[in-house]
Structure prediction request, 466 residues.
Amino acid sequence: MLSKRLIACLDVREGKLAKSVKFVNTRDIGDPVEKAIEYYRDGLDELVFYDITASSDKRNIIIETVEQVAKNIFIPFSVGGGIRSVADATKLRMAGAEKINVNTAAVKRKELISECAYAVGSQSTILSMDIKKVEKSSEIPSGYEIVINGGRTPMGIDALQWAIDGEKLGAGELVVNSIDADGTKEGYEINLTRMIAEAVSIPVIASGGAGKPEHLYQVLTEGKADAALVASMVHYGEYTCSELKTYLHNRGIKMRMRY
Amino acid sequence: MITIVDYNAGNIRSVQRACNEVGVDSVITQDPDLVLKAERVIFPGVGAAASAMDTLNKTGLDQAFREVVEKGIPSLGICIGCQIILDHSEESDTPCLGIIPGNTVRFKLNDPTLKIPHIGWNEIKVTRPHPLLKGVEDGDEFYFVHSYYPDPSDEMNRYAESDYESAFCCALGQDNLFATQFHPEKSGRFGLELLTRFASWDGNPDA
Prediction:
């Protein structure tokens, strides 16, 4: 039986680790390579690096980080943030990323998903979606809208429809990130996650809002997610990866417990 | 020295990095002559069977692959490199190398909550002892990412299985050729241990 996955997300700015709270006031908390190795040894199932480097002339730093990570950890990891072309995706894959995450650039030009799926394979193409709850309308029938710029710019695209389209275009996995829940530590957006997980046949990674182990349990059961993404819960030493996995295992969720 | 064959089938450098990690020298090559001179060979891969076979056929690596196996050189296929050693793949109806009898087939699942591709960590169970699986205990987990799986027709070629709604073969072999559907290079310690065993394997499946 397939295990549910615990995934840790590391926000990286100019090669340094940062954690965003509602995507503003980010602060550095350390070296991403060291953290990656620590989590790998502690039984983490997968890693995501999200490059939030703003200035374009410093964007190559992420390549060096990815190369360093790839030399040191032997579990899958993906990289996202600022991928605008197949060339960007291929460069990250060559540097050692198992998968690439597309987000904003795919919202602006959806062909990017199929181009990446063709170039690096669907299994290596993740569509990340930043989603905000809105009033249901004819334009947004699900009541969840795709947003970009850290939630500041609504795109007039229904999140459920975008998830379905993303799968059709060739995405191999989806990250469902609730902007409303992100940084609150009050739990994942269960309804949103379940709605999307039930509508697609590719794996769904739940993101945003994890604060307690119970939240992971909820999203992997009620939320029907295939994987739960955590960040600040593990970055500040509040919980370890192995503690979270043991908790979920003890509550009857199939997790990878020997590593 | 391990020769890693580059046939445009995915991230071969992860395999090389994993070899480095376990202290084994490796080279990456597309040259059939170098492959034939190899001490031991890895055919890695992710991606599509059709494009993998296409590249093998065009470069002459298909013939090199068969000869490597015939010559008794210890060989390891990973993922696509495991699927193409059978007769045929259902993926794009692709004729394959036919080194081991059987076919590569797509998951047909009844449970609508189970996803395809099968992505993530899954337990394996050794069904037939093999030197490369020495020390693997039932329930040890390896990393998978695939929509098709190998289905060798002869029980003798099946070495391990995993379960996704029903049991499927995830490791197969014949003589000096061994192949895994899962990715040892992405499977943490257990995967690295398998690569370590491969680095000193003499090609005898019964040793």
